[in-house]
Design a protein that fits this description.
CATH topology of one domain: SH3 type barrels
Strand order of the largest sheet: 4-3-2-1-5
InterPro entries: Lsm4 (IPR034101), LSm4/Sm_D1/D3 (IPR027141), LSM_dom_sf (IPR010920), Sm (IPR047575), Sm_dom_euk/arc (IPR001163)
Number of strands: 5
GO molecular function: RNA binding
Number of helices: 2
Shape: elongated
Low-confidence stretches: none
Order of helices and strands: HEEEEEH
CATH class of one domain: Mainly Beta
Subcellular location: Nucleus
Subunit structure: LSm subunits form a heteromer with a doughnut shape.
Keywords: mRNA processing, mRNA splicing, Nucleus, Ribonucleoprotein, RNA-binding, Spliceosome
CATH architecture of one domain: Roll
Strand content: 25-35%
Helix content: 10-25%
């Protein structure tokens, strides 16, 4: 399970985000993108004060967290189980195959596909030369 797939499965669910400066934010996931930028709603931000070992709590309606500030994302185990089950169901239906993706999956032995052979032309003895008759 890839992290972005797990995050997409966790939308609407509660999660905890730990930042690189050791602050923690708990809230419900609204959205995430390719760079793991995260938007949470009904969030509680726990700010750690390094000078006097006290914590400050701030309640926020919405918060946007840039992915490069995130150290750790924690979701409930049930979200992971649901995401795995959904992935297995998609695989069983054939929507995810071993050779899928861009390019059609032609490997090393699949030389006769695409836009023709290598080089220019396909004439006498494989092209590429001048002369040729």
């Amino acid at each position: 399970m890839l992290p972005l797939g797990l995050l997409n499965a966790a939308q609407g669910k509660p999660m905890m985000v730990e930042l690189k400066d050791s602050d923690c934010i708990n809230g419900h996931l609204v959205a995430c993108d390719t760079w793991m930028n995260v938007t949470l709603k009904d969030a509680i931000w726990t700010k750690n004060n390094e000078h006097n070992d006290q914590q400050e709590f701030v309640k926020l309606e919405h918060i946007y967290i840039k992915g490069n500030n995130i150290k750790l994302l924690q979701v409930d185990q049930s979200v992971l189980a649901d995401a795995k089950a959904k992935q297995e169901q998609q695989f069983a239906q054939g929507s995810m195959t071993a050779r899928g993706g861009r390019g059609g999956g032609g490997g090393r032995g699949d030389r006769d596909r695409g836009r023709g052979g290598r080089g220019r032309g396909g004439g006498f003895r494989g092209g590429r030369g001048r002369g040729g008759s």
